[in-house]
Amino acid sequence: MSSTSSPAPARTDAPALQHARGVATAIAVEAGDLAMSWYHRGVATEEKGHADLVSEADRQVEALVKRRLVEAFPEDAVVGEEGTGPTSVPTEGARRWYVDPIDGTTNFLKGLPDWGVSIGLAGPADELLVGVIVMPRHGTLFSAARGMGATRNGVPIHASTVDRVDRTLMCYALTARAPEAWGGPDRMRAGYLALVGNALGTRMQGCSVADLTSVATGVIDASWAGGMSPWDVAAGLTIVLEAGARVTDVEGNPVTTVTTDFLASPPAVHDELRALITGG
User: Fold this and answer.
1) Which domains does the chain have, with CATH numbers?
2) 102 is in an annotated binding site
């Protein structure tokens, strides 16, 4: 018999998730304060790629969040958008934290209010477990854990229950990678025009955390997303699901893991919205 013991399984029970939610909340608040200090004093803009901006604020906030998470959860992996901060354990077989230090960087750099710090926890199979989002310019803190509901500033929140497409306000976040998932440029264009012609209206907020928290609170009814990155949506998906929205992937399957192409909406209008988008 080998004397080498197997690693302990990643903890996904309710007490572990409640603890993770609390720790992530404290980290997000600290990170939001740091981001706000950069927001007020200004920061130089850099380019990561075409129409993809970054700043020293993004890197500093991510380094803080990663450092705090590695200290608190040394057996978990931490995956950040900017690749800064301490190195964590490999993702294989581990819980993994997805960190977007400033989601909505362009809004942040332009002085717009819709941006936030996003910290999401997923299990070893990328199953959605915990989501915490702080939006400092709005003074809001969202959090959720699997099976425990979602809150805004500690108060339970619920997605819209609208039951008519012509009363459904949509938002969308579609990157240059979205057509690969949603049937190509022509199909996406037709889907968007179908939404414009049938829904109450459409909005683009330029920030995934703004989109998903808006749907989680019912301020906006539905969100169509494509070409996202895991750190953009890991926290927000947990929050919107726990708030009662229905979320499906491109094929119409229920979303339970970190998914980068999806539709989130009230259950009563979901199938009709999806048919408009996909032409099916």
Assistant:
1) 14-156 (3.30.540.10), 165-278 (3.40.190.80)
2) yes
Task: Using alpha carbons, list the distances in angstroms from residue 248 to 222, 240, 263.
Answer: 12, 12, 6
Determine whether the annotation assigns residue 232 to a binding site.
yes
| 81 annotated among ligand-binding-site residues | yes
Which two three-digit tokens encode residue 83?
A: 């690749």
Q: Is 186 annotated as a binding residue?
A: no
What is the CA 46 to chain-centroid distance, rounded?
23
Residues of the chain where predicted confidence (pLDDT) is lower than 50: 1-7
56 annotated as a binding-site residue: no
Cα 187 from Cα 97, distance rounded (Å): 34
Q: Is the separation of the CB atoms in 231 and 98 below 8 Å?
A: yes
The SS3 assignment for 64 reads: helix
Terminal C-alpha separation, the chain: 56
Residue-wise pLDDT tens digits, 135-161 = 999 999 999 999 999 999 999 999 999
Q: Report pLDDT digits (tens) over 158-197.
A: 999 999 999 999 999 999 999 999 999 999 999 999 999 9
Which tokens belong to 91?
């993702």
